[in-house]
Amino acid sequence: MPQAIVFLDQTLCGKGRALLETQCGLLGAAHGFQIQRVVVHDPEDPLPWTLDEVLKSGPNGIIVPTLEHIGFRARDVLARCSLVVGRPYGWYHRGAMDRHIAGMP
To answer: What's the CATH code, domain 3-92?
Structure first.
């Protein structure tokens, strides 16, 4: 079963972080992914997990509730793995450069 990482930006989670984690986990499972871990990027953490570090860990997919959680870096993610976005819904395979993703030419 392919491994995926749920990536959340702490500044966008608010009080609904647990709900976002659950929703992303269910979305990943519906697409055949096993959630390897949930990473919450907190810019105030002295040793924060960044998106680059997550991508270097070699997941088959990254799951986010919205593109804002990856800072609109869909191109960087798709160069290394698949991307599943909750809202607006999208499942983009590695290497796909879909012009419908915000921030893509």
So the answer is: 3.40.50.1390
